[in-house]
Amino acid sequence: MPPFGLRVKISSERSAAGSLFEAAIPVGFDVGAHVHRRSEEFFYVLRGEVEIFAFEPVARTGDDWHAWRSPEGEGVVRAAAGTVVHVPPGIPHGFSNPGPEPARLLLHTAPPAHHEDYFDELLALLAARRGDTTDEVRALRERYDIEQLTPLRSART
């Protein structure tokens, strides 16, 4: 698996119920806080650790979700191997890998929403390294039912 890569385990072509992916998450990667209005997701940490949240924050402040808090006082958690996180439709969520080693996740999304196509397009866009891709990533995410709340980052700043 490449340093940042995805393997489709079950595609939307094979299942109307959901898609399943194995994701390699490099140190420093931050998917950014985002919302899916029509689909739910499950994350299962296979290896390493990720910082993750799945709640509606009191306030969506700034461009970094790591300090967000839920009305109940919940914050970002550090999820180790064996952790499962469920994200219902319409709930803001995000994950990042603070290190010190790459992490590996299983990601299930239902209904599938053709996320494998989204991931293929996103990886191609990021691999092109054409400078600022913010607008291109935003347009891509909108096509796949992804409302971007904070920026995607290849490394924490």
- Structural class designation: alpha+beta
The first-level CATH class name: Mainly Beta
Overall tally of domains = 1
- Going by CATH, the architecture would be Sandwich
- The CATH superfamily is known as Jelly Rolls
CATH topology name? Jelly Rolls
Uncertain runs:
none
What do the pLDDT scores average to? 89
- The counted number of beta strands is 10
Strand content: 25-35%
Strands side by side in the biggest sheet: 1-2-9-4-7
Largest sheet: 5 strands, antiparallel
What is the 3D shape? Answer: globular
In N-to-C order, the SSE pattern is: EEEEEEEEEHHE
- Distance between the ends: 26 Å
Radius of gyration: 15 Å
- Percentage of helical residues? 10-25%
InterPro entries: Cupin_2 (IPR013096), QDO-like (IPR053146), RmlC-like_jellyroll (IPR014710), RmlC_Cupin_sf (IPR011051)
Protein name: Cupin domain-containing protein
Pfam family, one: Cupin_2
Organism: Actinophytocola oryzae
Summarize the structure.
The protein is of the alpha+beta class and 157 residues long. The chain has helices at residues 115-128, 134-143, and strands at residues 5-10, 19-25, 34-35, 40-47, 49-54, 77-80, 84-87, 93-96, 103-110, 147-148.
